[in-house]
Amino acid sequence: MRFHFKTHYDQDIRLFPDWWNFSLYAALLVVLIVLPMVIDSFYLGEVTNVLIWAVAGLGLMLLTGQTGQVSLGHSAFMALGCYTCVNLMETGMPFLLAFVLAGIITGVIGAVIAIPALKLHGVYLTIATLALAILADDIIVILDHWTGGVNGYFAPEIWIFGIEVNRWINPAAWYYLALGTALVVTLLYRNLLRSPLGRAFAAVRDSEISAQAMGVDVARTKTIAFGLSCAFAGLGGALMGLFAGAFNNETFNFLIAIQLLMMIIIGGLGFIHGAFLGAIVIAFLPQLLSISTDFLGSSSIPGLETGVFGMILIAFILFEPMGLYGRWLKIRTWLELFPFARRDMFRRQKTYLKTERLR
């Protein structure tokens, strides 16, 4: 068992707790860099899809996992990021600049929408954001001059420093684009959690009344969290639409938002690792179901994917609310303490305050 003997307060906010932890992530980064050289284009495309889902999932994780505000409207902001990026590219703007501006514009619009929306709490906020996701479908059709309406758009060509990023011609380039975006968003997320603003997010999540008593501006904190969350979701939506090659009003329907929420719950709510683990489940489970039905010799079953996702979500809510990463933390702790681990050391406890029950 390894213990961290801390002698300074700065050690609590280090990016990596120790050199061993740093070496593990460095080794993982090396594996990710050389991955296109060892797997074929099909599985490379699936891994790229995982990274894109993870970018969007980190956006919702920041809002729901770190600030405690549940949203079912992030599919609308993913669509906004995608259409904004494409429209900026059509003006002749380079992809990288259009991509970054799309995230910024989506974040600003998300923060403006959050000002009235975040006056709501709990299930009422969830319903309001769900209504936004449903309205986004009609808004995309109405604004057909910028969105292409029902016909949608074909993704424009992407060039970065003279290299064509094409899913079919150069899948490795698309993979590295998604990997680079995921790394940047993850570093921004991780450094945000180490800042005073990140501590304010956690305070608002645990108890708004206690956070307000400690001097945290709750409304401002929730608005910033919503804006940053929408910015990350916008980046993920831009990558998702461009990677698909063609998109319209049905590409970013409210089911995408529900899948995002399922993803972070299954992966582990409140953990950066949870966004990536959940993305793996979301991206690979349909392929696994398809392979299984082919192996059994049966035809595709309507609604099978949705039903399996629902059963998995219910199972995690009932038996492992901390998700896949939370289960791994418990297994690791049990192994470290063996044979002195106690049976009830992970017993669930009610941690909410009486003043928060009716929110």
From TrEMBL:
It is found in: Cell membrane. The chain crosses the membrane at residues 20-39, 45-63, 95-115, 122-143, 172-189, 224-246, 252-285, 306-325. It is a multi-pass membrane protein. InterPro entries: ABC_transp_permease, LivM-like. GO terms for cellular component: plasma membrane. GO terms for molecular function: branched-chain amino acid transmembrane transporter activity. Its main location: membrane. Keywords: Cell membrane, Membrane, Transmembrane, Transmembrane helix. PANTHER family: HIGH-AFFINITY BRANCHED-CHAIN AMINO ACID TRANSPORT SYSTEM PERMEASE (PTHR30482), HIGH-AFFINITY BRANCHED-CHAIN AMINO ACID TRANSPORT SYSTEM PERMEASE PROTEIN LIVM (PTHR30482:SF20). This is Branched-chain amino acid ABC transporter permease.
